[in-house]
Amino acid sequence: MRTPIVAGNWKMNKTVEQARSLVAEMVPGLQAIQGVDKVLCPPFTAVMPISAMLTGTEIGLGAQTLHWEASGAYTGEVSPLMVKEFCQYVILGHSERRAYFGETDETVNRKVKAALEVGLTPIVCVGETLAEYESGITADVVIRQVVAGLKDLNEEQGRGLVIAYEPVWAIGTGKASTAPAANQVISDMIRLALASLFGKDCAQVIRVQYGGSVNAANAEEFFSQPDIDGALVGGASLKTADFLQIVQAAAK
């Protein structure tokens, strides 16, 4: 049995004061829900104060990206060791990072290796654009992103990953994929690619989330699918009631 994992990606939202207020609201409800791993991923400015607030809880903390080098002349970047001081998780290869900041399968691969090296759990995002989806090349794109993004990892490292399937055309658009369609991509494409890298047994152990317009109304439908192990939640993770409802649906 794979334990479901729900992570809230706050993106570039919330000042430190606003972040503290939101976490204070969320923690009691999140603490009460068992049987699901819960992760909050605020912007970097809020990571340190939120880390202090989550001490003594079982709620995980994640960063939204990192640089693959341990230190150096990389103005504006944050290293794996800096992230590891406060976080247990890191989101890597999000489609917004790929689209706006030039991330590629190769740079994602470097970041995944760097994160694993310091003991972070990477949440590795894969997914096709609207043009790719309409062209019928979802399988080509998703399998390529998995294979290239996780290149040269061994089975033990593979077991330390979380994958997030996020069709780019569904992120922030309100157009979620259907639950059966998302499940099919995960089962027939992502787990197949994972099996080619790490073997069938390992592919069945790795948790794969769905992301892309997940909300309180549709979460239960996604989580009822056999190959969907939780969600990477965007906008709804900024609303306490909605996020708690999504986490509760995963716990079922």
List keywords for this structure.
alpha/beta; TIM Barrel; 8-stranded parallel β-barrel; 8 strands; 46% helix; 15% strand
Describe how the helices and strands are arranged.
Layout: E1 5-9, H1 16-32, E2 37-41, H2 44-54, E3 60-63, H3 80-84, E4 89-92, H4 95-101, H5 105-117, E5 121-126, H6 130-134, H7 138-149, H8 155-158, E6 162-165, H9 179-198, H10 200-205, E7 207-211, H11 219-223, E8 230-233, H12 240-251
Parallel strand pairs: 1-2, 1-8, 2-3, 3-4, 4-5, 5-6, 6-7, 7-8
Helix pairs in contact: 1-2, 1-12, 5-7, 7-9
Structure description:
The protein is an alpha/beta fold. It has a single domain (5-251), classed as Aldolase class I (TIM Barrel, Alpha-Beta Barrel). It has twelve helices and eight strands. The radius of gyration is 17 Å and the shape is globular. The model has no long low-confidence stretch (mean pLDDT 96).
